[in-house]
Amino acid sequence: MKNLRSTVLALGITALLLVSCAKGQTENTATQATSTQATDATPAATATTTAPATATSQASPATSNDKIGQPFANTVKITVMNSKPEIEDALEAGAKAFGSEYNVSIEIYETDSPGNTLAERYAAGDAPTIGIMDIANIRDLAAEKLVDLSDQPWADVGGRTMGAVRDGKIYGMPLTVEGMCLIYNKTAIEKTTGHAFDPTKYTSLDAFSSLLKELQAGGMKYPMVLNAEDWSIGQKGYQFVYDYQDGTAAGAISFLKNVHDGKTSFSENTVFNKVYDAFDLFIADNINHEDPLAADYDLNANYVADGEAAFWLNGTWAWPDFAPYAQEGSEYGICAFPLNDEPATQGKVVAGATKFAAVDKIDASEDQQKAAEMFLNWLVFSDEGQDTLVNKCGIVTAFKNIKLQPNNPFNIGLKHYIDEGMVIDGATYMPSDHRSLLAANMQAYMVGKMTRADIASKLDAYWKSHTPTE
Amino acid sequence: MNQKMSNGKKTFLFLSFAGPSVLFFILAFVFPLIYGVYLTFTDWNGLSSTVNFVGLANYKVVLHDASFWKSLSLTVGYSLVSVLTINLVAFGLAYLLTSGIKGQNFLRAGFFTPNLIGGLILGYVWQFIFSRVLVPFYKFLPVALLQKSWLSSPHTAMAAMIIVTTWQYSGYMLLIYIAGFVGIPSDLIEAAKIDGANEHRITRSIRLPLMVPSIVISLFISITRTFKVYDLNLSLTAGGPYDSTKLAAMHIFTKAFEEQKYGIGQAEALVMFIVMAAIALTQTYIGKKRELEM
Predict the structure, then answer these.
(1) Is B105 on the interface with A (CB under 8 A)?
(2) Could you give the angle at which helices A61-68 and A366-381 cross, rounded to 10 degrees?
(3) Disulfide-capable partner of A409 in A184, A332, B69, B138 (CB 3.0 to 4.6 Å)?
(4) What phi and psi values does residue A288 have, to the nearest 5 degrees?
(5) Do A23 and B124 touch (CB under 8 A)?
(6) With an 8 Å Cβ cutoff, are B149 and A294 in contact?
(7) Per residue in A16-29, pLDDT tens?
(8) What span, in angstroms and rounded, lies between the C-alpha atoms of A276 and A284?
(9) If DSSP codes are grouped into helix, strand and coil, which group holds residue A165?
(10) Which of B260, B266, B268 to mutate to probe the A interface, most A CBs <10 Å?
């Protein structure tokens, strides 16, 4: 009996380990994308694609040292809170390299909810010297707790345009630029339709809809993939409406303010209706149509990677989850959300900085603040730092001086859209209860429990009692 | 031998034994509770160093927060059903596993195992079962219940929550009930048998009354655990579909941390605590009155 019991216990523990391993798998395999896949991928955008710049860094060591500073005489210890788990290992390696050169010891810890961690750490008097956080966290901390980074060298090479700016001062260095878009499997589309796929020809909903019909005729019954998670489908259901108003944050904010003042409403907004026309089409052609809310994120990635479906409504951040399923020899890319008759925004991808690095001024000593600023400059201006950001962390940066090309197809696509000027501002002005109060409605819409009019009235009600956070 | 201890010595003795625990209790429970209650009267957002006193404003917001009351009533319903199923299953199993059936020690360990797995992992495992394992069975067994994932419609998602909660806690309560059953003196049962009582009669008149202390403690634990559930809620349904299974703890967490309304979240937590304490203590009070002194 004892033997039996121990066997059962051992089995239980193995099962536990397996479950946790399966969960960690997506992260571990994040970097498994082969370079072939990356170089194979065709960046989407205009038909006239420019050749990508060669993957060599332009920054010379002499200029970088000026911008970074001199090594410390005594070791300075700093901490980094990282709220982007998929770059943890690369960041660790980068921090080590920087640390040994400049005599700085960097301790990095991970969090998936930066707001909570910051609250805890500040309450404990142990705030991270560098916090990698969201725009909302910067808004909360800004002048009171963060160092004004406006005079940093990186501000002039793109840091100001994409950084977290409050009252004219930069409090957060833009660390990652991400795009919200459709992800596609070029190989599968071409195989099914029998002709070359150029995403720039399908930027209108009419053209996109006819492409879906073509795919269906070719045997791909459900070419679209939609996620079920409220942070995904819930937020996209509204953000595309804001983003595509006129493509600028200012335009979206003025529209939302008009809703707030009762001057207009969502139901009479043409962009709202056009976005929902597209959603209706996506929902009808969703591969998870039988049970849309039971969709599984990894399985969704697999559908598109395998070519069972053609398009996945998501963002460039999905690559680490997508990579484990990516097929050798298949080409993937990103394209814009389809809309009819919107010349100013049509064919453009929503892009913006999504994570910012900020420096604490409450718990950090002057040396620590200096070391933190040096580390951020090292990332932007040194060869190793740039390699860490672009190649190791696999992100698109906001800095014009960095000439390295991204190393995965989604980011290559996004970089291309940015270089071509085919991007519109991503929404960053939603109040902190935007998701918790609105996102679930979009799930109800997906399964037909809410109508377009319901969504419009929920949005009206929300924005009547809220104003955009600038 | 009959020396009377001086008051000072008594205090010293008391403090040397109970002092450390009392100190830690005060530090870990009493202070946070008082501080928590204080926060309900402020507009603190969880981060800012400026904290303004707002009086009862947060409680007014709580009164009018329809989604909080919805989540609280959902929690009451969920707890009620879960407490019943947990305790019925645990009591039944404990009865079987003390009746001398073959392999009962192995079975006891087996039923207890789910309780060793954290709610978070249990939620993910069962999410997989409900969404990916059960649905393919529809091909072989075409019943409506298997056609879609249980987690994608409100009623079945709540049922799934209750099933997994029962699975998680009945093994734990099982141990308490087994201890209760084992503690019933066998001479009482033998005497009853000699007097001609059947199994049913023995259970009703001897076992049940003597099991009241176990029942009281099991009910108390299961009420408080199910009321405060968050991990399972997060990993199994994440409050979905469309917020239909968002229980009180999850609502409060979102309010305090995501919406950064710490004061309101704290006030809601206090309301939840009072409701939970009222139910659990009433239950204990009524149960205690039924306890028999041996």
Answers:
(1) yes
(2) 150
(3) A332
(4) -95, 25
(5) yes
(6) yes
(7) 444 443 433 333 33
(8) 12
(9) strand
(10) B260
CA distance B44 to B34: 16
Give the whole-angstrom CA distance, residue B161 versus residue B78: 8
pLDDT band at A51 (very low <50, low <70, confident <90, very high): very low
Kindly tell me the burial class for residue A47, based on how many C-beta atoms sit within 10 Å of its own C-beta (0-12, 13-18, 19 or more). Answer: exposed
Would you say residue A273 has pLDDT above 80? Answer: yes
Tell me the percentage of chain A whose pLDDT exceeds 70: 86
Residue B270 tokens, joined? 């206090």
Instruction: Specify whether the CB–CB gap between B120 and B232 falls below 8 A.
Output: yes
Higher pLDDT, A289 or B258: A289
> Range with the lowest mean pLDDT among A342-351, A394-403, B140-149, B238-247?
B140-149
Residue from the list B109, B124, B258 with its beta carbon closest to the beta carbon of A8: B109
Taking 70 as the threshold, does the pLDDT of residue A2 lie above it?
Answer: no
At B99 the pLDDT is 82
Q: Is A451 on the interface with B (CB under 8 A)?
A: no
Whole-number pLDDT of residue B186: 87
Q: Which residues of chain B are within 8 Å of residue A447 when distances are taken between CB atoms?
A: 152, 241
Strands A169-185 and A311-315: antiparallel
A20, A146, A291: best mutation site toward chain B, by most B Cβ within 10 Å? A291
Beta strands in A146-225 (DSSP E): 164-166, 169-185, 224-225
For residue A162 the two structure tokens come to: 């994409």
On whether any CB of chain B is under 8 Å from the CB of A1, the answer is yes
Q: For position A26, what pLDDT does the model report?
A: 36
- Three-state DSSP state, A169: strand
* B77-133 pLDDT per residue, tens: 999 999 999 999 999 999 888 888 888 888 888 888 888 888 899 999 999 998 888
- Min Cα–Cα distance to chain A from B72, Å: 16
Closest CB from B46, B131, B153 relative to A296:
B131
Tell me the Ramachandran region of residue A225: left when phi exceeds 0, alpha when psi lies from -120 to 50, beta otherwise.
beta
Q: Between A116, A144, A435, which is nearest B257 by CB?
A: A116
DSSP string, A279-299: HHHHHHTBTTTTSGGG--HHH
Compute the C-alpha angle A49/A407/A112, nearest 5°.
125
Using CB atoms, pick whichever of B148, B257, B259 lies closest to residue A113: B257
Extract long-range pairs of A279-282: CB within 8 Å, 24+ residues apart: A279/A237, A279/A445, A280/A452, A281/A205, A281/A208, A281/A209, A281/A212, A281/A224, A282/A224, A282/A226, A282/A313
Which residues of chain A have a CB within 8 Å of the CB of B45? 140
Q: Do B125 and A19 touch (CB under 8 A)?
A: yes
How many angstroms away from the CA of A202 is the closest CA of chain B?
32
A76: DSSP letter = E
Give the model confidence (pLDDT) of A138-185 as tens digits: 988 888 899 999 999 999 988 888 899 888 899 999 999 999 999 999
Q: Find the residue in B nearest to A434 (Cα).
A: B259
Of B149, B254, B255, the CB nearest to A291: B149
Query: Does residue B139 sit at the A interface (CB-CB below 8 Å)?
Result: no
| Distance in angstroms (rounded) separating the CA atoms of residues A399 and B204 | 78
In Å, how far is B189's CA from the nearest CA of chain A?
29
